[in-house]
Amino acid sequence: MADLVVEELSMRFGGITALDSLSMTVEAGQICGLIGPNGAGKTTLFNCVGRVYQPSAGSVRLGDVDLLALPAHRIAYAGVARTFQNLGLFPSLTFLENVMAGAYSSVGGGFLKSILRIGIAAQERELEARAHRLLEMLELDRHAFSLAKDQPFGTLKRLEIARALASGPRLLLLDEPAGGLTDSEVGELSELIDSLPERFGVTVLLVEHRMAMVMGISDKIVAMSYGRKLAEGSPEEIRQHPEVIASYLGGAA
């Protein structure tokens, strides 16, 4: 595990400032929730940390690694993995194959090498065993040989987390993992995410609109508004913060 340190991060799209000198720290092994209204800059921050965007200014470090100095295709080797609002799975592959695809990013040669079948027999057996273990740990092993397209959405959400974990990340970015789930599925997913730091040794950065879920599993929360950090603290501190209440939580806080 490693601390995530964001310092003075800014991102501009033409004349629009999506992130405005934002700084925050997530300690190793924490779950940090990002909250804020639509347009607050949460996804932009995610995309800067995940190297989808190159920020206009600032720095992002994971432990002793300068993430912004890396090309985007090296981010997985640095220990960063993510899920997406829209599932980033291969519908026509099995659960096992989807998880193995996530694991390829952590080994030399990657997916291209596997397609060309260059000296990968032993490596592929190792990755297959790793994928089986992950499916078992996330209670998906009964679906190992089922096609992703044939399973319900809630099950696929868990599969995407398994795929992201397959690369052995130090930092896991979860982008609205509860979107589209029923209340009972949200409860099950919350329990899973809450267990990730201890079971898999990851630090978690979470964007999610379901406040009960964020408040229930986050060690700390960063509230954002118009690209700036509005507040940072424990769930209880954020729940009582007057600016957060006024701008986002409202009377429901």
TrEMBL record:
The record's section on Gene3D superfamilies has: P-loop containing nucleotide triphosphate hydrolases
GO MF terms, alphabetically ordered: ATP binding
Q: Which domain of life is it from?
A: Bacteria
Q: Say yes or no: keyword Nucleotide-binding present.
A: yes
Matches recorded under CDD domains:
ABC_Mj1267_LivG_branched
- InterPro entries tied to this protein: AAA+_ATPase, ABC_AA/LPS_Transport, ABC_transporter-like_ATP-bd, BCA_ABC_TP_C, P-loop_NTPase
Q: Which residues form a coiled coil?
A: none
Q: Which UniProt keywords apply?
A: ATP-binding, Nucleotide-binding, Transport
Q: Which residues form the ABC transporter domain?
A: 4-251
Q: Please identify the protein, giving its name as recorded.
A: ABC transporter ATP-binding protein
**Which taxonomic lineage does the organism of this UniProt entry have?**
Bacteria, Bacillati, Actinomycetota, Actinomycetes, Propionibacteriales
